[in-house]
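Inputs:
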Amino acid sequence: MNERLDKFKNKLKTNALAFCKWAQRFFKENYLMFGYIAASLIIELTGVAVTSGKFYMTEPWLFFTFIAIVCLISQYLPGHRSRYVLFLAALLGNFALDLIFIIVFDSTGGTVFDYAMLKLRNDAITIVETLPFDFAYVFVSVIVITMYATFGFMLTKRIQKPNVSVSAKITTAALCVIALGSNAMLAYFGNFKNDSNDLNYMLDQTETGTYSNKGIIGNLYNELVRGLWFSDIDVGDISELHDFIYASITEPTEYFGRASDYNVVTVLCESFEWFTFLYDAQRYPNGYARQTLESVTREHDAQKIIADLHTLYPNLYRFYESQSTVILNNSYSLEKTDISENKTIIGNYPLFEYINYAYPENTLPYSLPNIMRNMFEVESNSFHNGYKTFYNRNIHHENALGFKSYTAAEDMNFDGDDTGVGERNLDSIMFDTCKDRMFPTDRRFNTYITTITQHGQYAERDNLQEYYDKLDALEILPYDENDEDANALRYYCAAGMDFDKAIGIMLDYLDANDLADKTLITLFGDHNVYYQGVSNYVKNITGTSAPNYCELYRVPVMIKVGNQSLGNPVINKFTCVADIYPTILDLLGVTTFSNLNYGVSAFNTKSSSILYSRAYNKFLTDKIYFNSLSNILYKSADVDEKYISDIQKTASELLEKISHVNRIFASDFFKGDNEAEFYARLTAAQL
Amino acid sequence: MSDTEQKQIAETIDGTARSPVDFRDAYRSVDADKKRKAFIMLGAAGAAMAVLLISRLLWLFEPLLDKIYYGTLSEIIYYIMLAVLFVPFVIGLNIFVKRYTAERIFLPQKKSLSFTRALGIITIGAVTVFIAGAVFDFKLKIQLEMGMGVTIASALTNITVYFYYALHLWLGLTAAALVQRALTVLFPAKYEVPWGAIFLVAVFGITELIFEYATTDHMYPWLYYMFTYAYAAIYVLSGHSFHLTYWASVVILVL
């Protein structure tokens, strides 16, 4: 018995020694490989850290399979020199890919790559406005790669020759199969759970909406797999979809029909924020209030600055303080311009796609222009002083949204077209040049205007010089060569002064032509000023631990209802960009199908919406900001379990609408007879 | 000649000279043919510096460049003209030096670098980039030179300035390599004097600093002068390897 045990022990010892010897040899032969693994991990984790603030990944498995595949390929190469080249190329590829997506993340206010971005075509490069290289990422990665390149090259001549025997190749082949299989399985099961007909999984998902889940490379690969093989939307039961659309209608509010028969003007004000023209020391400590807070010897005080702001922005104040204007004081937007634009024209937006590119020819009878044309025989026109083809608007606006025409900068024939020379066109010139087409006097009209002057980036622009002079004359937001943030705000506010001039041109023209009485005008900010972190700076909000993180996305919405004496009401309930469309229809006295609307009328006192950001994959109200309910990024102190429970219900209802809207777009549901039925049912709903 | 003087000359010849007086004696000890070649190399270095300075006169063509395309594109055309001037010059210089001195300034070194020296070079690079980043509040210098708040088109035009810096560094380092070899020949010593490094800092660096301020509106001439200390240190640590110094320096000047 003992003899057998000793024999077994000896055998075990021999095998263990042999294994140790093999492992030692394997390690020595593969210094390059282990160096590559370490370097690749450091580069990837640094990329994750600078985008999400976490130096780890919760689901690194896809990334690991890529490392494994590179390592296993190297085992087929006969010499260290060729392996060195392979590893170095892989590291450089890793670095370059990570850098690209970090730049996209930083320059777009935190957008994580998703497959639909590939459909942005050449607009993608324009959306990435600057190339912000992250110092920490570049610094760490360059050092790591340099060290690997240097020491790896030295080692190629000094380490023992690799083992490329047949048995080693067989083992490698087997491991290759395992790595590739794992990769395919992870990609498959990672996306299999995404059911386009039931999006409730989004409320429980572990995804953080940053790169801290799969890493940058893992996310890229996963998105490519999802986009190529898992993005088909199951249209499912058409009759169920039909019933869902017509299941309920909107409830009229006390403002219902206040603007019936009115002209409609909706102005998407690029990057418009309240702090463009308002003084508020609490909300905007680094805005105009900063001068009073820092002032010791200057004459400025709050009252003087407020008076000066009335001088600098006379038309915005004229609008803001009008008895006819309703102020949506607690309104939010967390989207890119194209999505905000669509949400205010059609009231919804599908998930997974950018509709300007994916569905530019779809039939959308519920768009405001189509409703205006078919219900009231009102012609709708769209204006934008940017490039004609940008966001594919030249096709989408006329074909899908139902505008009779889309006029872009190239069509306006105004003097001083600044597109293409690093500046932004002036809104005032657009309004002045196009005012007779925007606000025709011979018919009722629906006009949609998308401005551009306040668009980033914020640097000194020649065409804004008169506004810099005005600011300097009043000693407001002076240029400071040592403060880039303050200068960015200065340039932004100067652009706002041109926007103010544009609003003045519009109001004067409407007054002069007796149109003001019968025109409903909505001004709204499409998103906060994420360019150069101006919003973060002015609101002094950095990181989700800030006292009121949601405030970062609070933007202006002002609705002027002709010249009616409404008493300048202020609505303090939570509203968002999706509420603008139902609010306009409410004022026009149009009842619509509420399941097509992500929002509710701002005048609806019984219910509120929740904002789901397609661009950033986040849910937002004025009290809570989350990626999923298992990953709440911020909540205000007064959020309790009941509030969470209510939010869950509202978010579930919204997700149900989104899943149906996905199907509507994917199937072009309203094409053909369904369009006629929609108008018939809409007409019936008005009775 | 006294016995002491004879002893000093003997020490110089066998490479044991160490007092300042020995430089003169060391110089005397070099044979005429070597001296001639060394002076040719010094002349070539002078020519490189002259081309570097004269090339700035190309900006006199600015009104003409503006006629081709008004705007920042003029700079790109200027940089292309620099390349058109520098490349044939350096090729000609290399052929000239090779023919008249048998020196190959661009030939890669056979002696490989030790781990310690390699680590030293990486450390110098990392510390330099870190300090430069810290100066700019941990922003990459390239970011600032691209321009903050400008469009991608402007940014890409702005960073072509690195092409200009790289071309200048190429010529400057070529001159430094020639100076290193020439003065090492002219003043044989027990320990190699870092003539090339001194040249980079004291001649190339200072000249560039003055002319950058005088003739360009580049943002950080002072910083690029400070970088020459790093280039010089790398040149010494790399054992006067032209290629290693050049590429390591390019990484530093870009970042």
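Residues 30-254 of chain B form one domain. Flag for discussion at group meeting.
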